[in-house]
Please model this.
Amino acid sequence: MKKDNYCKLLDNTLMYYSASLNVANKFGGPSIYFHQKALEWQQKDFLGERHLEYVYAMLASWGMHRMGKTGAKMPNYNDFKESILSVRKELVSWKDLSIEKIDRNAFDELLPHLQDVCFRINASKCDTKLVSSSKTLAHILPNLVCPMDREYTLTFFYGEKNLTKTKELKAFNYIMQKMWDFYHEPKTSIIKCEKNKAFCESLPKIFDNMIIAYKIENNNQK
Model:
C-alpha cells in the first residue's frame, strides 16, 4: 500500500483540492458530456432508460471500450442494463447516501454489500471488474462511490496498474474506507461540491480529482 501518498494528499488538502478543480480540462469532449448527462438523468429518472444509456456511453468515453481486436471491451447494452437492474433494490435503497454523512458503523455494515453489488455489475468483458464497475457505480451513486482507474487510483494506492481478481475485491473496500476516512477529517471540510462545474459535482469525484492532480504533479517532478 502506498500509505505515503495518502498522507501527503491529506497533509496538502488545500493545494490538491485547488488543483482538482481543473482536472476536467485534461479530459474534455465526450468524457465530460456523457458524465454530466449520466448525472443529470440520475436525478431525473434514477435507473431509467436514459440514465443507463448515458452511463453506458460514459463508460465508452472513459476508455472502457476500444474498437478493434485488442483493448478494453464492454458487453452489449442489454446485458449491461440487466446486470444493473438485477441489483435495483439495493441501489434504490442507497440512492440518497453520502460518504461524508454516513457514520462509521453504518458504513462498515454497508461496505460488504456495496462491494458485492459492484462486482455483480457487468460493465466489462474483462475478468477484472473494479475499474468498469466502480465507474458505473460512481454515476449511479455519485455521492457514495468514487470512480477508480488503473492509471491514477491503483498506482496511487498500490503502485501498480493491474491487480488480480482477489486483490480487486480487497482494493474496492480499502479505497472506499480511505475515502470515508478522508471526508471525516476536519481539514477536508473546506472541500465543497460545485454542481455547475464538470467533475466537481460530488465529493467522491473530487476525491478522484485530487488523486489525479496528485499523480500528475508527482509524475512531473520525476
Remarks:
- The chain has one domain: 3-220.
- Residues 84 and 121 are 6 Å apart (CA to CA).
